[in-house]
Amino acid sequence: MFNIESDIENAIKHFSKLTKVKNKLAVHGEIDIIHPTVGLLDSFEVFIQFTKKYPYRFPLVKEISGKIERIPERHINGNNTICLAVRPQEVLLCRYGITLKWFIEAILIPHFAREIYYEEKNEYPFGDYSHHEDGLWEYYFEKFGTEDKEWIVKIIEKAVNNHLPNNNEACFCGSTKKYKNCHKSQVDILSLFERSYLKDELAELKTKL
Amino acid sequence: MPMSKHLVKFFPVDNGDTSLIKLKDNITLLIDVNIRESGTNTDGNDIYDVKKDLIESIEKNSGKYFLNYFILTHPDEDHCLGFEKNFYQGDPEEYGESNNENEEIIIDELWVTPLLFSNGLCSDAKAIKKEANRRIKLIDDEDSSKDSFGNKIRIIGYNANDRYEDIPNYIPGEIAEISDYLELFIHAPFKKDLIESQADKDRNASSIVFQARLKNKVTDDEPTAKLIFGGDADHYRWEKILKISEENGNEDKLEWDIFLAPHHCSWSFFNDVPYDDEENQVAKDYSLDFLDYGQDGAKIIASCKKIKKEKPNPPHEAAKDEYIDKLDSKENFINTSVHPKEKTPEPIVFEIGESIVKLETQSEKKSRAAKEIAASGVVKKPWRV
């Protein structure tokens, strides 16, 4: 059974500059970005807030040291909340639940490292997703290896309606190949999402067809 | 502490020059200086703290910061700004507490051209002139301290004035032995240019031009690195240097691994007619021929403001284009003002051992480290809802 108190305690053990906020499901403090040979690159003051969806979604992270310029290009909202990943990616990463320690190490620190890079180079080291639905679309373009929006919608609709073929059935694309030897690997990622999530996602994608 | 390699450092000083050579036997040479007040420049970018870096880079003698050599290529303000404030002037024996507090740097041996002793100088050049005259007087007076630390002077170029007859000097074609690791081949100023410069008040034309020949090991026959510095010398001077060197079998003295683009990347290196005259936007053959003496992987340093199409010039974008044409890659052309980025420029530093290696800047190191950490994350790209 997931226990948020012990999850926070465990994270704080590893990140000594973080403390639990009294009477709140939140953590506050500094996160150091340290490179093994170069040393300390920078520190960021954060306020990490746990929503009801945690640990099946990321907690909300506010960057309060003000080191990141508050402009849309820097992926930080007006209320200082950082956008750490494109939503379907976040949902997949959290599908079995996450821990705060993992979140800080695997998500937050690399994110701040990206921001440090941006300060020096005026761009992200591996690029970024566009805002809103455009960014969502870019995610699916990458996953499906196509920019054909109608095709993508068709596939997600099939997944939502449970109409994707079984392994040995003919592929939906009209080829004579079995599904497992044809498009399965490309669209298999959809089977990892809950259907209700995909349904909402589909509606959102359709607004920007 | 002795270093294992020589260092050559070009400071970002907008339109001006400040170049430091530090040999592994700890001998230091500063070629020109432009130390501005700290803060931001007119473009809103940080002014690099040259003084702080300089004193961290050089050594102390009896508790006093010092340079073995200061070479003033010509007495223009962008080549000597900040001298009066940051360098010690006067009898080294009288270097006191306040000088120490100001971290004033003592120059062991001062190199100037005869043009320093003319009129119409900026205040920093006047301060150098005063200090030069102090040192010359020691020679005139046959003072026993004339060859002591902080009192030495050398005049580079033909000496037209009898008053300076007894002052040590070098003229074009001579080699100055600086250390077991370094010799300087003097190319200019030429006699004729010095005389005409006096009359025309064209100080650029009588800039000191030299090739620095740096050996990795004392026993090496050939230098590892050849660097050419030439202040603000213009096209005529380089043409003459090329002709005379080739006539005298001194082609190897024209070779360069690192070339400091003359006059802050000005078009004046390529043509004697101002670039504004549209009919003369052609680089002269002599200039291009000189650039052909660049060695494999050679680099050109443009010590100037960010190079743009529009004015002010120098720098001239057309000059940059001509330089890049002569290099192996455009990355080998480095503009001090945008190195590694415009907002916070940092010096261009080369380490010279068996080969010439450009050192990583603080910013480059930070972004490399940040990218490595970012790459370790499971999410590569941010998004915004």
Q: Count helical runs of chain A.
A: 7
Class by alpha and beta content of chain A: alpha+beta
| Element-level helix/strand string of chain A | HEEEEHHHHHH
Q: What's the N-to-C terminus distance of chain A?
A: 42 Å
Percent strand of chain B equals: 15-25%
Helix content of chain A: 25-40%
Shape of chain B: globular
Any idea what the shape of chain A is?
Answer: globular
Largest β-sheet summary of chain B: 10 strands, mixed
Rounded average pLDDT of chain B: 94
Give the number of DSSP strands of chain B.
19
Helix content of chain B: 10-25%
Structural summary, described in words:
The complex is a heterodimer of chains A (209) and B (385). With 209 residues, chain A is α+β, with helices and mostly antiparallel strands. Chain A is built from seven helices and four strands; from the N terminus they run αββββαααααα. Chain A has a four-stranded antiparallel β-sheet with strand order 1-2-3-4. In chain A, strand 2 (26-35) and strand 3 form a beta hairpin. In chain A, helix 1 (4-14) crosses helix 3 (100-121) and helix 5 packs antiparallel against helix 7 (195-206). The mean pLDDT of chain A is 92. Chain B has 385 residues and is α/β, with parallel strands linked by helices. Chain B has ten helices and 19 strands. In chain B, the strands form three sheets. In chain B, strands 1, 2, 3, 5, 6, 8, 9, 10, 18 and 19 form a ten-stranded mixed β-sheet that branches. Chain B has a seven-stranded mixed β-sheet with strand order 11-12-13-14-15-16-17. Chain B has a two-stranded parallel sheet with strand order 4-7. In chain B, strand 8, helix 4 (123-140) and strand 9 form a beta-alpha-beta unit. In chain B, helix 6 packs across helix 8. Chain B is globular, with a radius of gyration of 21 Å. The chains are: A alpha+beta (209), B alpha/beta (385). The A-B interface holds A 33, 35, 37-38, 41, 72, 75, 77, 82-87, 89, 93, 106-107, 109-111, 113-114, 116-117, 120-122, 124-129, 131-132, 135, 139 and B 340-341, 363-385.
